[in-house]
Recover the amino acids of this structure.
């Protein structure tokens, strides 16, 4: 969700803006900080004469041996790039080249923080970050981007001594949004709703969609219904943005406003800071801003730099309460980050393997401090796989299981909300933190459901989500434990299962899915024939 988001042209011209403007359900984090004080070990902005030209060699020398492994999706190669050279390349790819120095510097710090915070995001692919909008886009560095990286070299944003989560969007429309209002569970004390005076006078935008078009967009993300009759605002967030919408004539009949925006098109419907009127079969949205509005406002940062604010002041506005800290003083989650620099940029390193395959065919990663061991999880998975594959007649080995140490890490890796316990896809399982699973039925039960989902997924690739999820829950619990749904019970729509608006709604939809599966299986007998 990159920064080119804030290029003014993209704001003005919806047609050439790309949907990469902002991450789909992948909140991009960035952070910054403001330091008031205290112990500033390093001057915030190193003294860099305005006209100094920096080279790639300067950036490499300034990286202190810290290297990022970047995966290039087009051809699959992985390149090791020194940290500061990477920051300058991302900045060139994502910032408005005409923005003033202070805005470039604020962004460079945000990019560096995001980079280190998310360094292990693609660990199972054998690298740190990819080169697409899923992570951060790179371009050849420019004199401007190299200067901004050098002026802020090694500076990151921290909260309580830890790297902060950094989010940003193009334009807040006059008031930023609290993170937890967009992504339930993402409650960071420095990502609060604040007035932004430099954006208050922006003109409103107006856009219309027909009910038909909105219905088709909702159907694409899993809603069902004969006819969408109307859409109404159903509550606001603390910043005044729309929180939820009521959908008459669709199932489910409610959607989080952020999901609605992504369903319609995040470029077409620029933000959730809108009012809504219905004229005949047309819905007219009148709104402000562009993007989710959480964290730094890119347009606002540029305007603040123009009126003379420093990078530090800009960061203080958008990330109140963060500290600006030299990276040498911060614990980086994955120590491989400090691997001595052995190669120059552009030199490819071998694609790392996930690790030697285990005899069981199950590869497990757990957090360093985890009380649950990898072999516990391997044992649960192996037992579940042995047992369930006899029942189902399918196999998915080898498989990879990753136990996350925080809900944030789980949420970032899976793009699912915090109330989901496990996500099974292909041959990979992501598990929410063990402490969380313990409150939700237990780690072993979660592993079992996830293994069952992998085992049935191949047979159900073209079917509604309730068939796959219902089957996984049905088989993982044992057939007699599940009560078939009554004849009149409607099976959940994909949206009810995948875009639930609350933990309670999620649990209800899952339990209806397993009941539906039990009911339909009783009719057709063969589990693969359920639909
Ligand atoms: Zn990525
Ligand atoms: Zn703003």
């Amino acid at each position: 969700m990159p920064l080119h988001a804030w290029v003014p042209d993209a704001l003005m011209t919806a047609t050439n803006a790309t949907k990469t403007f902002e991450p789909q359900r992948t909140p991009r984090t960035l952070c910054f900080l403001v330091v008031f004080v205290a112990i500033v070990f390093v001057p915030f902005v190193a003294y860099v004469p305005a006209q100094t030209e920096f080279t790639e060699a300067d950036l490499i020398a300034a990286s202190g041996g810290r290297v990022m492994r970047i995966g290039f999706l087009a051809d699959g190669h992985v390149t090791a790039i020194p940290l500061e050279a990477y920051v300058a390349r991302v900045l060139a790819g994502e910032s408005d080249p005409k923005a003033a120095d202070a805005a470039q510097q604020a962004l460079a710090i945000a990019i560096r923080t995001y980079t280190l915070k998310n360094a292990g995001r693609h660990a199972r692919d054998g690298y740190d970050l990819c080169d697409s909008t899923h992570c951060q886009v790179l371009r050849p560095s420019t004199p401007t981007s190299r200067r901004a990286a050098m002026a802020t070299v090694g500076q990151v944003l921290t909260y309580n001594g830890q790297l902060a989560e950094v989010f940003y969007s193009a334009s807040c429309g006059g008031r930023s949004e609290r993170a937890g209002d967009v992504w339930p569970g993402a409650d960071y004390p420095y990502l609060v709703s604040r007035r932004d005076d430099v954006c208050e006078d922006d003109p409103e935008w107006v856009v219309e969609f027909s009910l038909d078009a909105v219905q088709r967009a909702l159907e694409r993300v899993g809603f069902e219904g004969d006819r969408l009759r109307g859409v109404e605002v159903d509550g606001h967030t603390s910043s005044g943005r729309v929180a939820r919408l009521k959908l008459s004539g669709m199932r489910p009949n409610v959607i989080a406003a952020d999901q609605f925006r992504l369903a319609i098109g995040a470029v077409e419907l620029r933000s959730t800071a809108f009012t809504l009127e219905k004229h005949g079969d047309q819905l007219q949205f009148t709104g402000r801003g562009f993007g989710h509005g959480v964290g730094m406002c890119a347009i606002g940062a540029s305007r603040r730099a123009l009126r003379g604010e420093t990078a530090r002041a800009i960061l203080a506005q958008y990330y109140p309460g963060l500290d600006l800290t030299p990276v040498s003083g911060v614990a980086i989650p994955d120590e491989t980050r400090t691997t001595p620099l052995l190669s120059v940029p552009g030199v490819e390193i071998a694609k790392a393997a996930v690790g030697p395959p285990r005899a069981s065919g199950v590869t497990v990663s757990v957090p360093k401090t985890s009380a649950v061991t990898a072999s516990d999880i391997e044992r649960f998975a192996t037992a579940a796989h042995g047992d369930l594959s006899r029942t189902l007649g399918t196999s998915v080995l080898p498989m990879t299981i990753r136990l996350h140490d925080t809900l944030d890490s789980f949420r970032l890796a899976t793009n699912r909300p915090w109330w989901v316990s496990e996500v099974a896809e292909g041959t990979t399982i992501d598990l929410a933190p063990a402490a969380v699973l313990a409150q939700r039925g237990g780690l072993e039960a979660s592993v079992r459901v996830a293994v069952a989902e992998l085992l049935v997924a191949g047979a159900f690739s073209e079917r509604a989500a309730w068939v796959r999820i219902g089957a996984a829950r049905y088989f993982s619990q044992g057939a007699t434990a599940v009560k078939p749904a009554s004849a009149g019970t409607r099976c959940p729509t994909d949206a009810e299962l995948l875009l639930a608006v609350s933990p309670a709604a999620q649990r209800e939809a899952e339990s209806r899915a397993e009941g539906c599966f039990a009911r339909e299986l009783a009719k057709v007998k063969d589990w693969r024939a359920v639909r």
Remarks:
- Residues 1-46, 335-357 have pLDDT under 50 and may be disordered.
- The pocket of zinc ion (ligand 2) is lined by residues 171-172, 196, 199, 297, 300 (CB under 6 Å).
- The first strand starts at residue 67 and ends at 71.
